[in-house]
Amino acid sequence: MEVLYVRYRILISDDEVDIVEMLTGFFRSKGYEVFSAYNGVETLKLAELQPDIILLPQKEKKSTKFRASVLVRMIILLSRFLLLNLKPECKHI
């Protein structure tokens, strides 16, 4: 009997490079395949690879209209994504 190993794919998107790099390193160390995006355009392109989950920031510095269009397209592409709130004062995510 052959055991199949499923390697989940995660897309991490944020305009804060440090956050993306930290999360990318963490999830890769746990065996996940990770795609990193630093803006909405990159996020949409990488979302076409159909990752299992997408981590998005709750707030971005860019236009909220652009962010909304990214979310709508992502919902169409995928049904699984998370909005992250990584403020220092945030105690629960």
Description:
With 93 residues, the protein is of the alpha/beta class. Helices cover 38% and strands 20% of the residues. It is built from 3 helices and 4 strands, in the order E-H-E-H-E-H-E. The chain has a 4-stranded parallel beta sheet with strand order 2-1-3-4, with helices on both faces. Strand 1 (9-13), helix 1 and strand 2 form a beta-alpha-beta unit. Helix 2 (40-47) packs parallel to helix 3. The model has no long low-confidence stretch (mean pLDDT 75).
What is the compact description of this entry?
With 93 residues, this protein is α/β, with parallel strands linked by helices.
- Report the biggest beta sheet as strand number plus sense, adding barrel if it closes: 4 strands, parallel
User: Would you report the number of β strands?
Assistant: 4
- The overall average pLDDT, rounded, is 75
Alpha-carbon Rg, integer = 14 Å
* Low-pLDDT stretches: none
Strand order in the sheet with the most strands: 2-1-3-4
What is the string of helix and strand elements? EHEHEHE
- Gross geometry: flat
Distance between the ends: 40 Å
Report the oligomer: single chain
Query: How much of the polypeptide forms β-strand, as a percent range?
Result: 15-25%
* Count of helical stretches: 3
The helical percent reads 25-40%
Which structural category fits the helices and strands?
alpha/beta
